[in-house]
């Protein structure tokens, strides 16, 4: 473990960082585009793919970029769900900002971290959707809607994040020019003194 | 932590949230019309949505062959029985047809419908993501003379209304949505009520007719049409047929489960009624 960490810390800077960045953002754009396009196909319950995608990008980005991605994905979600413009924008903006801060200070790039973060984010988004779109209007037997519509959507979103994470992990592995592992960085002076 | 709340970053975050809230408030004041940016995005993305939906539909149709073989077998048996019933009814078909033509002439339906101004056929370009009430998008908008609350129909009957509109596309809310209340009556009886969507029924593409008396004479198979007594729908459009009669939760009245005459599950094209007799008065009443 120590050896691999040392190897990581002493590795040379990646070549052509600007080109890698451009390719990375191009792939992000393709993923977001595909998620948006598939959202309107077919009248059946689908995962909210834009949520895990926004979280995957936020996990390796700064607060400002994460906020921007959150707004973009949120507005696209507003268009595909036919909700008030800006409603999902605010939600995902705040969620992505929080995720970025958490990865910057607390969390490592691990599979389960992203899964539970997606679960929490999807729970918040679908919960707000349920409250504002159905519950407050007093529909008859609205709890059935939560059980048979909102919960499957939440489950599909979490499951879809298990596919999103490996894809974005690959993108980040090969195309992320600068590692953002703050904890490792903090370990470096400790190792040097040791 | 306190430093964060005094930082420039926190102020920028507050500004962005204020901007988004402002955008939401502006959108609310548009009375169903989308924001210009949303409309512009929709204009670009309509062909893509349409392509995505057709791919999704064809994949779904292909998969259905394998996943629903048992269901198809059951359906086939039911259809055989239904065909047998229909063949027995064919004996009275000519007489019924003649009666229907006479009734149509008598009631002046042919004179009523020319008042309705229809749009060109609209194609469904996609579905509202995860909408339990099966809302969808059509490829025509305010540029084609459509407006919010215009009724949407097919040759088979009523589909819903336009709930939101942009320059180039519109969102249609179906009769399965609890947001819609349609004044309705039985086509050959004096029974009347309100047709509206229901959370539990919408998953099976059904709606219900409420406020029926306890001694209702409605029975399975009766046809329900729009009555124009309330709401924004023209008179005489078929909504569906009665599937069953059930008591309401309050126990004071009954409701009829309605099977829409339009196959909402496999809808491809619709027509919008842009204008009809009495619409101005209804607009004024709103």
UniProtKB/TrEMBL annotation, chain A:
GO-annotated cellular components: plasma membrane
UniProt-listed GO biological process terms: regulation of cell shape
Family the entry assigns: Belongs to the MreD family.
Source taxon at top rank: Bacteria
Membrane topology: Multi-pass membrane protein
Transmembrane among keywords: yes
Lineage: Bacteria, Bacillati, Bacillota, Clostridia, Eubacteriales
Subcellular location per the Swiss-Prot or TrEMBL entry: Cell membrane
Signal in keyword set: no
Record key words, sorted: Cell membrane, Cell shape, Membrane, Transmembrane, Transmembrane helix
Coiled coil: none
Name of the protein described by the UniProt record: Putative rod shape-determining protein MreD
Any Pfam family: MreD
Annotated transmembrane regions: 22-41, 48-77, 115-136, 156-176
From TrEMBL, chain B:
Keywords linked to the UniProt accession: Cell shape, Coiled coil, Membrane, Transmembrane, Transmembrane helix
Family matches, as Gene3D superfamilies: Rod shape-determining protein MreC, domain 1, Rod shape-determining protein MreC, domain 2
Transmembrane domains' residue ranges: 12-29
GO CC, alphabetical: plasma membrane
Source taxon at top rank: Bacteria
Cleavable signal peptide: none
Parts forming coiled coils: 69-103
Alphabetical list of InterPro entries matching this protein: Cell/Rod_1, Cell/Rod_MreC_2, MreC, MreC_beta-barrel_core
Any one of the GO BP annotations: regulation of cell shape
Coiled coil recorded as keyword: yes
Rod shape-determining protein MreC beta-barrel core domain: residues covered: 125-274
Family designation: Belongs to the MreC family.
Function summary: Involved in formation and maintenance of cell shape.
Protein name as catalogued: Cell shape-determining protein MreC
